[in-house]
Amino acid sequence: MSTCAVATCSNYHRKTKDKGVIYHVFSVCPNRNKLRISKCKRQDHINVKYARICSDHFRLTVYMDGMKNRLLCLNQKKIVKPDEVPSVSLPLQDNGEDN
């Protein structure tokens, strides 16, 4: 079962399966993972092999254009651009501001 790795997010697959929420895997690039992990603000260790971040934390502009799927009238698969990090509904930063 997929659950969101963001510390303040209570989303998990069974709860959101009818709401269109997608659970994105972490990158294979360690440098990208460091930034994504820091945005999650978890106190415990995140195992990036199994962890997921739900689509509620990404802006619509961070998804790759699925032109091939559109042209072939296939289901659109939402894939986050490789360099993007979550930026919506995140835990408060250390300075008290929400990102």
From TrEMBL:
Keywords on record: DNA-binding, Metal-binding, Zinc, Zinc-finger
Record-linked Pfam families: THAP
Classification via InterPro entries: THAP_domain_protein, THAP_Znf
A GO term for molecular function: DNA binding
PROSITE patterns in UniProt: ZF_THAP
Top-level taxonomic group: Eukaryota
Residues covered by the THAP-type domain: 1-89
This protein's name: THAP-type domain-containing protein
Species this protein is from: Araneus ventricosus (Orbweaver spider)
Phylogenetic lineage: Eukaryota, Metazoa, Ecdysozoa, Arthropoda, Chelicerata
